């Protein structure tokens, strides 16, 4: 059996409204946990990333939702968001390529602005209703954050960032992260916003949070294609 990774992990997706809600709960209410977990991006790979993943024996389990589930999610997310004092704005995704915003996260991370990038992209998508798969949107966010516009907007074309994306997809596969938000603590796994309290109890019951993380941390922050109810984005 592989050795247990003692660092709690948070698989987040910039696409998913449930991941956005979990992000807000984590950063607004539990900044000490936000500062200690590993932040791992999760997204549906495009055709190129799928080929890269399959070439090394990886897998990406995902099933498209039904229309009934999609309509339920519209209602459910608005209800949960309003309970949290938020008003969602529904984006329209036209031919989305999720590598565009998620590989740009790695570029922002390299510049020391990963946390700010996550915060701003979530605002842009879920509070402003804009298309985060539009390279012009990513360039605008980069400009706001003082980051290289071309690098972030064209991250999906960067070979090194594609390789990092492949490693991230393999990490999802290894942890069995089939949807988001997805939390891992030791051998325990928690899927969905409704499992977040159980994740917190597991972390607090394990002797406290670790002092160091192996992936760059996001830290405490201020406060189309919708995702699966309570989890999978």
From TrEMBL:
Signal peptide: none
One Pfam family linked to the record: DSBA
UniProt GO molecular function: isomerase activity
Enzyme class: isomerase
Region (Disordered): 214-233
Catalytic reactions of this protein: 2-hydroxychromene-2-carboxylate = (3E)-4-(2-hydroxyphenyl)-2-oxobut-3-enoate
Chain intervals with Gly residues compositional bias: 221-233
EC numbers: 5.99.1.4
Residue span(s) of domain DSBA-like thioredoxin: 10-202
Record's keyword terms, sorted: Isomerase
Organism superkingdom: Bacteria
UniProt record similarity statement: Belongs to the GST superfamily. NadH family.
Protein name per the record: 2-hydroxychromene-2-carboxylate isomerase
Organism: Streptomyces abikoensis
């Amino acid at each position: 059996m592989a050795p247990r990774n003692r660092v709690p992990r948070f698989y987040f997706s910039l696409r998913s409204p449930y991941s956005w809600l979990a992000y807000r709960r984590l950063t607004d209410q539990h900044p000490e946990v936000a500062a200690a977990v590993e932040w791992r991006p999760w997204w549906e790979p495009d055709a190129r990333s799928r080929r890269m993943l399959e070439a090394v024996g990886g897998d990406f389990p995902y099933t498209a939702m039904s229309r009934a589930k999609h309509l339920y999610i519209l209602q459910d997310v608005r209800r949960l968001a309003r309970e949290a004092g938020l008003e969602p704005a529904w984006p329209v995704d036209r031919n989305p390529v999720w590598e565009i915003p998620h590989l740009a996260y790695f570029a922002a991370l390299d510049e020391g602005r990963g946390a700010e990038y996550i915060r701003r992209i979530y605002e842009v998508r879920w509070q402003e209703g804009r298309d985060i798969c539009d390279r012009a949107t990513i360039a605008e966010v980069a400009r706001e954050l003082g980051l290289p516009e071309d690098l972030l907007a064209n991250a999906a074309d960067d070979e090194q960032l594609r390789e990092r994306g492949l490693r991230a997809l393999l990490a999802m596969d290894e942890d069995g992260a089939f949807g988001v938000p997805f939390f891992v603590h030791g051998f325990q796994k928690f899927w969905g916003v409704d499992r977040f309290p159980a994740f917190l109890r597991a972390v607090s019951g394990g002797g406290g949070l670790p002092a160091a993380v192996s992936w760059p941390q996001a830290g405490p922050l201020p406060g189309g294609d919708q995702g699966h109810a309570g989890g999978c984005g």
